[in-house]
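Researcher: First entry.
Model:
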Amino acid sequence: MSQGRSAFSDAASRAVLDSAPEGILVVNREGQIVHVNAQTEELFGYGPDELLGLHFEVLLPESFREEHLRQIAGYTRAPGLRPGRVGLELRGLHKDGTEILLEMSLCSVDVQDGPLVCCVLRKIASPKSSEHPSREVEQRFRLMVENSHDILTIRDADTRVRYTSPSIHRVLGYRQEEIIGSTGFELIHPEDRSNVETALTEFWKNPGARDSIQYRARHANGSWVSLEVVAYNLLDHPDIRGVVINGRDISQRMQTEAERERTIAELQEAISKLDTLTGLVTICASCKKIHAENGSWQQIESYIRDRSQVEFSHSMCPECSLIWYPDHYQK
């Protein structure tokens, strides 16, 4: 720490940093905090000099540490090549464990003891800069959900429906208020219900899991709709605390697949009825009878007819007509 402190041996420089209205934090190459002013200590809830010598990551929520530490490391590796960055928004971690929204500006300083990164921090009490984009993103997301062809449903830990999107009416014919608060299990086809309930019971036990299942659900008009649902267990997510389910109507796809399977079965049945002649066949060079497997000699027509789906219609070629009926053929 003595090396870091030597960078601030100039009393005037230290006075400027300490009197700045924003929080100022200085980090060395190893990510060690070598200087903080009173505003920073107040911002994060630490006492005088309590942060000195600690690693910068103590001020960051765990989920954000990797990205922000990578930015800091980039400045310490090549301070002369990295331009300063102004107005970065990030989340900081107060000493009491709460998260605070901050605006941070970065600049690098190359001093005798090695590169330092200076962070200027300001708490965003009312993040006006992000308020409008957040509303815009939220509105865009709401429009996507409400106009999606799929059914988006959120179920609570007791499996009851907390939310379902308006597309429930288009796909199954029910109003949102008819489904919210119920389990909806009574709508599952009797042949599918046991499997679905068993799968859901196991799925609810595994926060973070993702799985899919297909089943039939009763439409409001009494018909059956084939659904494919993909579920995400977010019961442990602090903002959701539920299971998010995306359901899609696959009735047309199932019908197409059934028709294809039926066509394939019909073709296979037809092929199985065909007797295909293969191998070496002995035929008389004079009368053209065929020597059958049982030792007899059969007319070629009967031999082929017995072993295939072929019928014969007799005629006479020009050469034979000339031989057998020369007078008639010449006319």
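Researcher: Second entry.
Model:
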Amino acid sequence: MSRDAPNIIDQAIAWHLRQADMAATEWEAFVAWLEVPAHAEAYDRVTLLDRQIAEVRFPDPAPLPVAANDDAPRHRRWWPLAGGGAIAAALVLGLTMPSVFAPAAADHVYATRDGERRDVRLADGTQVALNGGSLLRVSGDDPRRVALDSGEALFHVVHDAAHPFELRAGDQVVRDLGTTFNVVHSGARIAVAVAEGSVLFQPDGAQLRLGAGQAVTMAADHRLVRSTLPTAVIGGWRTGDLSFDGTPVGEVAASLRRALGIDLRIIGDLSKRPFTGMIHVTGAADRDVPHLADLIGATWRRNGEGWVLAQRDTATP
């Protein structure tokens, strides 16, 4: 092991623990960090061990004997109090003492920066198109078990009735029934749209079947909204065509950030306003941002290297 290895492991653990709360600039830094092979290898090991730790079943503590004349004992419960520090310690222990855990193959991690795209072919022949600002994990033990931790991806899945393809986005599961489908995982919002075949979306354990031309969006409060759309527009981001149906402007802006790789900020309540329509992204921010502002009835201005959108009656600081 090289001298730098412990430091790299510490960095990998830190990135892993921060992911749920990272801002766009931090995601960009994370993707850049992953581009170093040693960093990517360390992060793979950390995510693998985290999954193994989560699967460990610890025995219930044995009850302590209580004498008749004694006061009630003060139970010292340490494991349920485990926060980031205890989790990090467990990860370090597992990485330095790998024999504690059963050997397993590390996850494969694929990441893109905003404005960058990547095509991935899995071992089973399934093809995945990753949009900008996305993070995909593929199980090292089973290439038909994947997780979209953030961003957007279009999946062309090879059908195998005996071994269905399973995608996790946050706590939710999408099970493929032989199809092409698009998934967006942005914060607590998840959107699934089917172009061909069908999928089984399992929100909170339910069974929701979606066929070609059908879509569903799960909001942060787990409210589901079903819709229909032309199959030709699903995955249209690959050719610069973005389609929205009652989508909050904040998510529309996130789509533009993924496509252009720009810093785009929303002022006030504009981010909550629903937008329905189509946007063609030319790739030139100085054309695409003003065009979006016109479509949603907002003002725009440059802010250094970034952009700011606001309601027409709201001043931009």
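Model: Note on the second entry: The two ends are 51 Å apart (CA to CA).
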